[in-house]
Amino acid sequence: MAAARVESACRLAAPFSPRRRCCAILERVFASSGGRPLDRVSLRDAAHDAPAGARHGLRMVQAETPVPVRVWLTNSRGEHRFDGVAVAWTSTQVRVRYLDDTGREGWTWQWAPAVERR
Questions:
Q1: Could you tell me if 93 and 82 are in contact, meaning their C-beta atoms sit under 8 angstroms apart?
Q2: What is the pLDDT of residues 12-21, one digit of tens each?
């Protein structure tokens, strides 16, 4: 069922769009998980986002191909460093898709200095 949702969402994207490339990455991750859907990071364990107001009015760049990064995150359990991919950015913040230490998927906006390329 979940595989069908990923597949149908990818078909809707234009052939060479950033969404299509991101879908291809998600399909690979989905396949590597044995065909079971990825769990999402719970709200309790989710990273604290950088303030949305700080990126309001700034030009946002969508990555044509997600960029591998390492990011420092803060959540209710403390500070953590995870590997992920940058999917969008402004001059001050970066949108990151990451997998936490239990393999759950999370998305967050972080300040640019907290993100470095791998």
A1: no
A2: 444 555 555 5
